[in-house]
Amino acid sequence: MDFGYEGKVAVITGSSKGIGRKTAEQMVKLGAKVMLVARGEAGLKEAKEEISRFGEVDYVVADVKEDAAASQIVEQTVEKFGRLDVLINNAGGSFAKPFEEVSVSDWEQDLDLKLMAAVRISNAALPHLKKQGGAILNLTAVLGKTPPASSLPTSVSRAAGMAMTKAMSKDLGKYGIRVNTVCIGLIRSEQIEEKWKSEAPDLTWEEYSRLDKHDVPLGRIGDTEEAANVITFLCSDLASYVSGDAVNIDGGSGHAL
């Protein structure tokens, strides 16, 4: 099956580990050239060394919250690989507290990382994507659709990312640019592994993953590769008529379509 990645170039933020790194690996295996982006060079070097066994990959050390980072990332990518076809806005983290415990500074930092960083780099990438069309994918979260208690500010930032995705898809479709989001649920990550080791060190990962308390209809926490599979598909030519969509990757745990 041809995903259409041969000769294409992708930028993936937050890609030194987790979902971003696994997505980069999958795309490179399918023929894409990928620019990894993260703040820490050590993790990027390790990721590049691992992924370069399968094809062309490089990295940019950048903090996507900084104004100059967006143009730096795009310029270095085009200088290195000659074009840009796919942008995956994956940088982010989980910051969730009750409303009364969230400071104004917390709000500003969370929105800057999860929303405005994607705005900046999407703007920087747009002139290149307009040349031949392409795909932008924003990672958000299921809780942005139905925010639970004590989920601020991250649920609001993610909801804003979904709204931005839909509006962008309407504006950019005329250039052949597709814009989608994946709404992440419980997916294995360093943060979840830390909870496992602190809450249930006597359990194996498989046992911890399947605890009833996670309340996942499919009965387990998802793997990073399962999230990367969906992202890789949505950014590929196989999804050429999918735009403005929000796809849950949550094992059925979300309460909204």
Automatic annotation (TrEMBL):
Q: What is its EC number?
A: 1.1.1.304
For this chain's UniProt record, which GO biological process terms are given?
Answer: bile acid metabolic process
Top-level EC class: oxidoreductase
Keywords from UniProt, A to Z, are: Oxidoreductase
| A Pfam family reported for this protein in Swiss-Prot or TrEMBL | adh_short_C2
- Catalytic activity as recorded in UniProt: (S)-acetoin + NAD(+) = diacetyl + NADH + H(+)
Q: Which GO terms describe its molecular function?
A: diacetyl reductase ((S)-acetoin forming) (NAD+) activity
Please describe what this protein does: Catalyzes the irreversible reduction of 2,3-butanediol to (S)-acetoin in the presence of NADH.
- Which family is annotated? Belongs to the short-chain dehydrogenases/reductases (SDR) family.
Q: What is this protein called?
A: Diacetyl reductase [(S)-acetoin forming]
**Native source species:** Salinicoccus roseus
